[in-house]
Amino acid sequence: MTNPLFYAKILLFGEYGIIEDSQGLTLPYSFYKGTLKFSDLKSDFDKESNDSLLKYSDYLKDLELPEVFQLNISKFKKDIKKGLFFDSNIPQGYGVGSSGALVAAIFEKYSIKSYQPEQVSKDQLMNLRTIFGQMESYFHGKSSGIDPLICYMNLPILIESKESVDKVAIPASHEGKGAIFLIDSGMTGETGPMVQIFFEKMKTEGFRKTMKEEFIRYNNACIDAFLKKEMTPLFRNLKSLSVWAYEHFKPMIPESIYNAWKKGLDTNAYYLKLCGSGGGGYILGFTKDYKKAEKMLEGFHKEVIYRF
């Protein structure tokens, strides 16, 4: 496999919840992708990427990984000297897995043992997730390892709990009136500070209670309904999830999106939710009538990712 492409990912459900053991559902998004390449480093982009890889290689050198997941760091460092860089159009700070794709690409190229994603067992998936979490922590302070796992496997993954992940088949996308879409908030978000806000909120008993009793219930019900293609319970729980986020995740909702978020709830024309940690980047939208939602969200850049 020469220069394999690693796609972005979209966490449809489970943002913040997976930290607290809710379910999550995440899928590859091939509109954005990245691959490791060599260059003469004459462009600023290539040079910056090469410099970042050098710093990252020092971090990886000090990681104590189990023998079966060892990386060939000396080869990685030699390639960096030869002009290795990560050629990617995945926007950073948009919640679509820019660092996840990089981690997956490095693991694929430099892992001493090679794996065939389609043959990876459920146990191996969990082990890979742990390794990827350690590798990606360099970028976010703490990583669940899910983003690089999706990028590496290039398959939809159901996060069943902290201890269990599995490959999953999602209903095929087909041309209907309904859609799941991305809205560009027009600003980037940083994962670290947003996660910090979440942990601060978790210190209060009231927030912990509503997170467990409401957010996780709505979130898991959305995943169940989506996988079963049951649109009525999906949209009922989506509305509850969107209302909950509007009340409890205010700091994570980009200001440019506040009014549009509320308008969706007031009209029931569409519902919005965070895509990743929030603070900027993309927001996810769900609607039964995309034409209507599109008109109401005029002025925002939108991308449809799934039709039904």
Strand proportion, as a percent range, falls in: 15-25%
- CATH fold field value of the largest domain: Ribosomal Protein S5, domain 2
CATH architecture assignment name of the largest domain: 2-Layer Sandwich
Give the H and E element order: EEHHEHHHEEEHHHHEEHE
Total separate domains: 2
- How far the N terminus sits from the C terminus, by CA atoms, comes to 34 Å
> pLDDT average, as an integer?
93
Q: Into which percent range does the helicity of residues fall?
A: 40-55%
At the first level of CATH, the class of the largest domain is: Alpha Beta
The coarse overall form would be globular
The helix tally amounts to 10
Domain GHMP kinase N-terminal: 84-153
Keywords: ATP-binding, Cytoplasm, Kinase, Lipid biosynthesis, Lipid metabolism, Magnesium, Nucleotide-binding, Transferase
InterPro entries: GHMP_kinase_C_dom, GHMP_kinase_C_sf, GHMP_kinase_N_dom, HddA/FKP, Mev_gal_kin, Ribosomal_Su5_D2-typ_SF, Ribsml_uS5_D2-typ_fold_subgr
Domain GHMP kinase C-terminal: 254-301
Give short descriptive properties of this protein.
308 residues, alpha+beta, Ribosomal Protein S5, domain 2, Alpha-Beta Plaits, 2 domains, five-stranded antiparallel sheet, four-stranded antiparallel sheet, 10 helices, globular, cytoplasm, lipid biosynthesis, ATP-binding
